[in-house]
Amino acid sequence: QSVLTQPPSVSAAPGQKVTISCSGSSSNIGNNYVSWYLQLPGTAPKVLIYDSDKRPSGIPDRFSGSKSGTSATLGITGLQTGDEADYYCGTWDSSLSFWVFGGGTKLTVL
Amino acid sequence: EVQLVESGGGLVKPGGSLRLSCAASGLIFTNAWMSWVRQAPGKGLEWVGRMKSKAGGGTADYATPVEGRFTMSRDDSKGTLYLQMNSLSTEDTAMYYCTTDRVQLWRGNYYYYGMDVWGQGTTVTVSS
Q1: Is A104 in Cβ contact with B114 (below 8 Å)?
Q2: Contact B61/A46, CB-based, under 8 Å?
Q3: How far apart are CA A80 and CA B91, in angstroms?
Q4: Mean pLDDT per 10-residue run, chain B (128 residues)?
Q5: Cβ-based contacts of A39 with chain B (< 8 Å)
């Protein structure tokens, strides 16, 4: 059971928008920075979002992040078949004193 | 461009030990905070631990499942991070990724944003 809760799967059609939620608590999301990671099949993860809503250079603005209270959300617009992947949220947990990941969400672009 | 290359994975028997290495290039390694993250076959990501830069304190933090068994260290002169893994069990079977971490120093305080660049990983299999 992950400390951060993500839906196991989401799906949407090409060109549409999808959001992936990440729910936590005051000891993690509520008081720390959230990152989002993309893992394409058979490859290493890559950071999409850090500090809840910032994109590293090279990440297209189709990807966005937000945080409200103890939840965070990843948004992806203009879906492409190449976006099919697993997406993970992560943050520091101040009570556990270590980094925690969500269980991951598999995105299917129908 | 930052590049991380992990090595040292392999097959080991339960109760055995293994040392992983992560060779970093394209960054000022002395200033880097680094982490190890693992992923069991078919499972999600699991943070293993992080090591702060010497300027940041040089200490390591570990996830509960590995604390007391795994030890991180670094050789700044070689730009290399290590993970010494002892008392291995089948539950430690996973792909092990090395990462650089995004950290900001502002007004004397470090702000930690998590994993940034990831290596390609090295596979550890614990089996009799």
Answers
A1: no
A2: no
A3: 36
A4: 97 98 97 97 97 95 96 97 98 98 92 95 98
A5: 45
